[in-house]
TrEMBL record, chain A:
Identification of the protein by name: 30S ribosomal protein S11
SUPFAM superfamilies: Translational machinery components
Record GO cellular component, one term: ribonucleoprotein complex
Keywords: Ribonucleoprotein, Ribosomal protein
Classification via HAMAP family: Ribosomal_uS11 (MF_01310)
Alphabetical GO biological process terms: translation
InterPro entries to which the protein is assigned, alphabetical: Ribosomal_uS11, Ribosomal_uS11_sf
UniProt record similarity statement: Belongs to the universal ribosomal protein uS11 family.
GO terms for MF: structural constituent of ribosome
Extent of the signal sequence: none
Pfam families, alphabetized: Ribosomal_S11
Automatic annotation (TrEMBL), chain B:
GO cellular component: ribonucleoprotein complex; ribosome
Organism, as annotated: Melipona quadrifasciata
Entry similarity comment: Belongs to the bacterial ribosomal protein bS21 family.
Keywords: Ribonucleoprotein, Ribosomal protein
Classification lineage: Eukaryota, Metazoa, Ecdysozoa, Arthropoda, Hexapoda
Domain of life: Eukaryota
Protein name: 28S ribosomal protein S21, mitochondrial
C-alpha cells in the first residue's frame, strides 16, 4: 500500500512537470479538485450575480490567441539576417532597395479586415480591399476565412499589375491577421518582411468603459 | 500609423527567410507576446477600474511568489545528480 502511495506521489510529480510548460507550475491536484454537483442546472448554463454583473460559470471566449504566442521559437543563426539593421534599408530585393518597396497594410479588427497597397512612403494608396468589399457581410467579415479570401483576391490583382515584391505591415490583433498572411502567400506575392504596427500605449487616454454582456 | 517615422520597418520587424512567411510571423508573435505588447494592447481596449487594477496586481504578486517557490521545489526534486530520480517509484 505504501508503495502504491509513493507511486501516486511520484506520478503526480511527473504530471506537474508536464504542466509546467508556461510561466509557472500549478500542481494537478489543485487544478482538478472535483466537487459533487447538487444543483440541477448544467454547469455550462449556470449564472450568478456579482454586484451588478451577471457572470457565467464557464468563462467567456477569450481574445484571439495568435499562433506562436504561447510557444518559444528559437531562431537558428542563419547566414541571412533575421532582423533589420542599419544596412537593411539599402539592401536590394527584386531590383529595388528595401526602403523603396511598396507596402501592404493590413488592419485587422474584431469585425473586419482591411488591406491596402501603398507606395513606399505609405501616402499614395494604390489598391484597397476589405472583407466587406469581398462580399462578406456582418459577423462573417471578421473571420479568418474572409481575410484569407480577401488577401488572395488582392494578391492576384497586385500580381496582375506588377507589384510582385512587397513589405507587409500589420495593425491590430483580430482573427484576420493570420488569414491575411496566409492569403498573400497563397496568391504568390513575395513578402520581404513582416512588421507589426499595432498601436500600443503605456499611458493612454482613458479608454471606453467595459462592455456588459 | 502607430510607429514613429524613423523606426518604421526597423523595429518590430522580422525579415522573411526563404519565403517562409509563416515562420517569420510566428517568431514576430512570440516576441511581441514575450515583451507584453499584446497584453498591454488587450488591457487598454477597455477602461480598467481601480479596484480591478488592485485585484489584478495582487493576484499577479501572489502568482509570482507561488511560481517562484514551486519552481524551486521542483528543481530541487528533479535535480540531476542522483542515481535514481524518483526513489520509491519502482
Amino acid at each position: 500500500m505504501i508503495l502504491s502511495t509513493l507511486q501516486f506521489a511520484a506520478g503526480s510529480l511527473t504530471k506537474s512537470m508536464i504542466v509546467s510548460s508556461k510561466h509557472c507550475t500549478i500542481l494537478p491536484y489543485l487544478k482538478h479538485t472535483s466537487f459533487r454537483d447538487i444543483h440541477i442546472t448544467s454547469n455550462i448554463m449556470k449564472q450568478f450575480r456579482m454586484g451588478n454583473q451577471k457572470i457565467r460559470v464557464v468563462e467567456e471566449k477569450r481574445d484571439v490567441i495568435m499562433p506562436g504566442e504561447d510557444t518559444i521559437t528559437i531562431s537558428e543563426s542563419d547566414s541571412k539576417k533575421l532582423f533589420p539593421d542599419a544596412s537593411t534599408p539599402y539592401q536590394m530585393f527584386d531590383g529595388k532597395a528595401y526602403n523603396q518597396l511598396d507596402i501592404v497594410n493590413v488592419k485587422s479588427t474584431p469585425n473586419n479586415t482591411i488591406m491596402s497597397l501603398t507606395d513606399y512612403r505609405g501616402r499614395k494608396g494604390i489598391m484597397l480591399r476589405s472583407a466587406g468589399v469581398e462580399g462578406f457581410k456582418n459577423t462573417r467579415k471578421g473571420t479568418n476565412i474572409a481575410a484569407q479570401q480577401t488577401a488572395v483576391t488582392l494578391g492576384r490583382r497586385m500580381l496582375e499589375n506588377g507589384f510582385r515584391t512587397v513589405r507587409l505591415r500589420i495593425q491590430g490583433i483580430g482573427p484576420g491577421r493570420m488569414g491575411a498572411i496566409k492569403g498573400f502567400q497563397l496568391a504568390g506575392v513575395n513578402i520581404v518582411s513582416i512588421t507589426d504596427d499595432t498601436r500600443v500605449s503605456y499611458n493612454p487616454p482613458r479608454p471606453r468603459k467595459q462592455r456588459r454582456i | 500609423m502607430g510607429m514613429f517615422k524613423h523606426a518604421q520597418f526597423l523595429s518590430r520587424t522580422v525579415m522573411v527567410q526563404n519565403n517562409n512567411v509563416e515562420k517569420a510571423n510566428r517568431l514576430l508573435n512570440s516576441i511581441l507576446s514575450k515583451e507584453g505588447i499584446f497584453e498591454q494592447y488587450r488591457r487598454t481596449r477597455y477602461y480598467e477600474k481601480p479596484t480591478q487594477t488592485r485585484r489584478r496586481i495582487n493576484y499577479e504578486k501572489c502568482k509570482a511568489i507561488y511560481c517562484e517557490d514551486m519552481t524551486r521545489k521542483i528543481q530541487f526534486i528533479l535535480r540531476k545528480n542522483r542515481e535514481n530520480p524518483f526513489p520509491g517509484s519502482e
